[in-house]
Amino acid sequence: MPAPSPLPTYLYKILPTAPPTPLPDCLPLSDLDRNDGFIHLSTSEQVPETADKFFSEFQTLWLLKIRYEVLERGTNGDGKIKWEEVGRGCFAHFYGGDLGKGNVDGVLEVRKSRSWGESLRLEW
């Protein structure tokens, strides 16, 4: 499936625990990312539904805010974004690269009110 048009300014990585401070050059992969062979990412529009579906039991989440063009350009020539159809939409998957201080624009801590959909307001 093709990438969304227009392309998002930011992609987000949802974390159930706080990342290290300061961010290292390379964050460890989640078990899911390691098993699937890519890093799961979401657009701002996808984050609330993904959080409700996979992280509903958590009251606090951390989001890595990643500028799309930085991942697309790559750091040291590594990594590639592929837009792939997953049951409920087309999601960005980051292959062959790492996330860390070289490509993460910021870390957002978000606390849930009633649902993640009501708690998250992100930049596209």
UniProtKB/TrEMBL annotation:
InterPro entries: DUF952. It holds the Pfam family DUF952. This is DUF952-domain-containing protein. It comes from Zopfia rhizophila CBS 207.26. The lineage of its organism: Eukaryota, Fungi, Dikarya, Ascomycota, Pezizomycotina.
